[in-house]
Amino acid sequence: MTTTLAHLYLKSELPMTVTSTPDPHLLAFHQRLPGYAPTPLVRAPHLAAALGVREAWVKNEANRLGLPAYKILGASWAVYRELETRYGPFTPWTTLSDLAAQLTPHLPLTLVTATDGNHGRAVARTARWLGLAAHILVPDDMVAARIQAIEAEGARADVIPGTYDEAVAAAARLADERHLVISDTAWDGYTRVPGWVVEGYSTIFQEIDQQLADLGAQEPDVVAAQMGVGSLAMAVVTHYRAPGRETRVVGVEPTHAACVLRSLQAGALTEVPGPHASIMAGLNCGNTSPLAWPSLQGGLSASVAISDAQAETAMRLLAMDGVVSGESGAAGAGGLLALVSSEGAGCARTRLGLTPDSTVLVISTEGATDPDAYARIVNGADLA
Asked: Which of 128, 240, 306, 341 could form a disulfide with 310, with the two C-beta atoms 3.0–4.6 Å apart?
């Protein structure tokens, strides 16, 4: 399937340089969470061959702190910083039990968020670790497996009629002194927590830098980043457009929820109304986070929207390289594959400096969060 020029945006000038340093305590915080270990950085020769490049790497987030997605990094850090801002400063602590004990005088507290799946489960897991309640709002098209996974964390999960964006609005209305909204998207007057979510993701890239250094491998020339509201892509831009780095960043979205792409084409934030029915459930967002927008507008080298079929092709290709990647998780790889097969492939390669000697990186942001769908797509089977 060919990606048309309507589904592709190529930046005409060089992307901006970003000067930002993550909190020096961030990695140490994540290292104190139960089961912390760097996720694997996997060589992907089949993906490299399909892209026509020398090397492809996949950061495999299929098992991050016992959850099947990267979102726990942002959720846990944002919860910690928000609690510390409201009730701290905390005295030195070693375990989460030590931290939870310091919150006891402030109970009851409930963490609230809207989710397409992974972020909500991550907030629920963080709440469980700290002895807090969790109330997670989900759009009405979420598959049962993802709702059940949230409820298995001990959270209350309520289905909101409508889209993810309507669930976000419903969550915002619940905020009060006992209900802390932990959203990964921003809105007018609400940017502090989403900023910490983005910062939390930087642990991924600190790990990648160390892993590549340990292997004696070069930094990537091109990195693909999935885009829902744009928080992960903002984290990618912040890291890879830092001074001294020349890595190009490609943003990837579902065709029918391409709010960043449409905004880039329009030159201003542009809503893509729902319903958003892509199998890339974690990316079914109609509005770009206004916090992320300046970084995306200035720091992306390209943006591409892909179909469900293109995501499925990427899932199968990553499986050949030993990576179990869910529908949203494979979108980054799907976007690069779409670029090299698009109507503007030659121009895209030139703008990105993509040659047979290039190295690319994709972040597989989730494992098989819908196991039945994964088996059907990759194996042609059904686990039910």
From this structure: 306
Contact by Cβ (8 Å): 320, 290: no
Catalytic residue among 71, 165, 184, 321: 71
Of 342, 245, 253, nearest in space to 299 by CA: 245
Please indicate whether residue 116 is annotated as part of the active site: yes
The neighbour count for residue 156, using CB atoms within 10 Å, is 14
Query: Which residues partner with 360 through β-bridges?
Result: 56, 222
Instruction: Show the beta-strand stretches assigned E in 99-226.
Output: 110-114, 133-139, 156-160, 179-181, 222-226
Catalytic residue among 11, 59, 98, 116: 116
Helix axes 96-103, 118-130, angle to 10 degrees: 80
From residue 377, alpha-carbon distances to 243, 315, 320 in Å are 41, 8, 13
11 flagged as catalytic: no
Query: DSSP assignment, residue 187?
Result: B
- Distance CA(80)–CA(70), nearest Å, equals 17
Return the pLDDT at 382: 46
DSSP conformational letter for 153? T
pLDDT 10s digits, 193-214: 999 999 999 999 999 999 999 9
For residue 13, the model assigns a pLDDT of 86
What tokens were used for 86?
């409201």
What would the DSSP string read from start to end of 57-104?
EEEE-SSBTTBSBTTHHHHHHHHHHHHHHHH-PPPP-SSHHHHHHHHG
